[in-house]
């Protein structure tokens, strides 16, 4: 592996938006990033020097519900185990902070679902199906 450092603080909004874009995740607004990132329950950033090369966060209410979001690795360093490293850091946090019966969820893009299954995540279907609503995509205000 490269000289990778691990930080448990959220990235800056600019870094976050840039890594999401280059890693192929959906676009978010600068306004949303500036509000959301400081409200993370937990964040992990992988850096090569000053450059952000990977990230992941946990969001939620801190008691009953937790969601793993923003798992991203820069394409130039994918395939080096960084996704697994990010998830290992997140799982350490979850094992220490999620109370009994707390629910941790995530939305998994294929083929990333294979990574998450290695950490014990299972599909909710057929008991339930993931659903979402995104501001501005349905014509509702």
UniProtKB/TrEMBL annotation:
PROSITE patterns: GNAT. GO terms for molecular function: acyltransferase activity. The keyword Acyltransferase applies. Keywords: Acyltransferase, Transferase. This is GNAT family N-acetyltransferase. Residues 1-141 form the N-acetyltransferase domain. Coiled coil: none annotated. CDD domains: NAT_SF. PANTHER family: FAMILY N-ACETYLTRANSFERASE, PUTATIVE (AFU_ORTHOLOGUE AFUA_6G03350)-RELATED. The keyword Cytoplasm does not apply. Its EC number is 2.3.-.-. It comes from Paenibacillus illinoisensis.
